[in-house]
Amino acid sequence: MPWKCGRCGAEYEGDFCMECDRDVERPTPPPAPRPRIVCLCGSTRFDGAFRKANLDETLAGRIVLTVGCDTHSDQTLGLAAEVKERLDELHLRKIDLADEVLILNVGGYIGESTGRELAYARQLGKPVRFLEPPGTDGFADFIGPTIR
């Protein structure tokens, strides 16, 4: 495939323009568009929902940010309160990086931590999707429009 020299406009093949008598660099193709990044939020007691959403979102071509542990509850880990606070803060940074947030509201459940994450995502203007249609869980007035 012939290339056009950026200096003289002559067509050339390889890495040398005969018209300019110089080495030329081929134009770098534009990078592929970055896949969307989705952050999963929900209660860690729903580890099966996290695994399924992680797989589904990955197969849909999205980069997935999720919780850092796979337990049925935070209490199972036996973490000190300050460690739990640091992990909660770290998850907010994942929301910062994400293009959108997926709330894993299994059975309509949105706990205190997930509610805080939902409020933070909305404050940032992040699009929010829900695993199940949001109900009358106290967040309906706050969450605003969702994406499907």
Topology:
Elements: E1 3-4, E2 11-12, E3 16-17, E4 22-23, E5 37-42, H1 47-59, E6 63-65, H2 74-77, H3 81-97, E7 100-104, H4 112-123, E8 128-130, H5 140-143
Parallel strand pairs: 5-6, 5-7, 7-8
Antiparallel strand pairs: 1-2, 3-4
Helix pairs in contact: 3-4
- Poorly predicted ranges: 140-148
As for the number of domains, it is 2
**Major β-sheet, in short?**
4 strands, parallel
Mean pLDDT: 83
The amount of helix comes to: 25-40%
Number of strands: 8
> What kind of assembly state do the chains in view correspond to?
single chain
The DSSP helix count reads 5
Report the structural category.
alpha/beta
Cα distance spanning the termini:
43 Å
* H and E order: EEEEEHEHHEHEH
Q: Specify the overall morphology.
A: elongated
C-alpha-based Rg, rounded: 24 Å
Q: How would you write the strand order of the largest sheet?
A: 6-5-7-8
The amount of beta strand, in percent, is 15-25%
Features:
148 residues, alpha/beta, two-stranded antiparallel sheet, 5 helices, 8 strands
Could you walk me through the main structural features you see in this protein, from its secondary elements to its overall organization?
The protein has 5 helices and 8 strands, in the order E-E-E-E-E-H-E-H-H-E-H-E-H. The chain is elongated and about 70 Å long. The chain has helices at 47-59, 74-77, 81-97, 112-123, 140-143; strands spanning 3-4, 11-12, 16-17, 22-23, 37-42, 63-65, 100-104, 128-130. It has 2 domains: 1-29; 37-143, no CATH class. Mean pLDDT is 83; it is low at 140-148. Strand 3 and strand 4 form a beta hairpin. It has 148 residues and is α/β, with parallel strands linked by helices. The two termini are 43 Å apart. The chain has a 4-stranded parallel β-sheet with strand order 6-5-7-8, with helices on both faces.
